[in-house]
Amino acid sequence: MKRLLVSAALCALFVSPSWGALKNGDVAPDFTAQAAVGGKSFTFKLADALKHGPVVLYFYPKSFTKGCTIEAHDFADSAENFAAAGATLIGLSADKIETQIEFSTKECRDKFPVAADPDAAIIRSYDALRVRPNAPDAVIADRISYVIEPGGKIIYSYADSAPQKHIENTLAAVRRWHEDHKP
């Protein structure tokens, strides 16, 4: 009975939405990564992107998997809304740049970049590493979205293995920030 209760509690932790590993007010770790948009690679620098407004950084487990493809499609469908709110959008996973080049075109629909972090250094710095009990050595990101304000602080974080609320929640956070910072 005790084992059953522990198992149920652990399952609740992994399936229910929660706040991301880094909290509001935390300084977002700066990073530079190889990224791709529209099938072309480039170097993405968080510090440079923040000069133009807030950044929505979303971590996802693996390109071309069901949930990650749904999330990429939904972010692509809303990319213009993020741009209209003054935000830069970027996805990031532990996939290699070659995979991200293809994913940026096929699933992100050339609308926003995805970055490669095959050694998971950025993923770890954002406490976004997903440890899987059946494959503890597998390096994948958890599904966590952050909104980072131009000063480099996290103003919103959201973690949920289901992709559906990430777009709605981060766009709302960007719009709130924008409203609070009108001249």
Descriptive overview:
The protein is an alpha+beta fold. It has one domain (18-180): Glutaredoxin, CATH 3.40.30. The chain has helices at 2-15, 46-50, 66-84, 97-106, 121-125, 164-180; strands at 32-37, 40-45, 55-59, 88-93, 114-116, 129-132, 135-141, 144-148, 154-159. Strand 4, helix 4 (97-106) and strand 5 form a beta-alpha-beta unit. Helix 3 packs parallel to helix 6. The termini are far apart.
List its salient traits.
single chain; 183 residues; alpha+beta; Glutaredoxin; 7-stranded mixed β-sheet; two-stranded antiparallel ribbon; 6 helices; globular; disordered N terminus
Blueprint (SSEs and pairs):
Layout: H1 2-15, E1 32-37, E2 40-45, H2 46-50, E3 55-59, H3 66-84, E4 88-93, H4 97-106, E5 114-116, H5 121-125, E6 129-132, E7 135-141, E8 144-148, E9 154-159, H6 164-180
Parallel strand pairs: 3-4, 4-5
Antiparallel strand pairs: 1-2, 1-5, 3-8, 6-7, 8-9
Question: What is the structure about, briefly put?
Answer:
38% of the residues lie in helices and 26% in strands.
Number of helices: 6
CATH-scheme architecture: 3-Layer(aba) Sandwich
Beta-strand residue fraction: 25-35%
SSE string: HEEHEHEHEHEEEEH
For the secondary structure, the number of strands is 9
Mean pLDDT: 88
